[in-house]
Amino acid sequence: QVQLVESGGGLVHPEGSLRLSCAAPGFTFSSYAMSWLRQPPGKGLEWVSRISSGGGTTYYTGSVKGRFTISRDNAKNTLYLQMNSRKPEDTAVYYCARTSGVFTTIWDYRGQGTQVTVSS
Question: N vs C: which end of the chain shows fewer Cβ within 10 Å?
């Protein structure tokens, strides 16, 4: 049974360290590309970043490039999103999602999400 469980969100300041985690038991994590998605308040779901199964290839949407870093630890079945230099427009529910491949944004499972609210 595929499970994706996000954690690490909260009310945060624009500066300082924030890392989201996604625990992924129940499937062969190391065989899948993974993505982070987000849904800002009152808006639709949007893709943020994705990473290849081995971690060597990453992509980012333009608004977070240079500020966010996606990574994974296949030994721990865990996906991460390091969020630096945050902006109020980064406020959203963040989801991790199992992705069909690193060259696509098609996903089949996602977690329940973790809320990130950026405020000074």
Answer: N
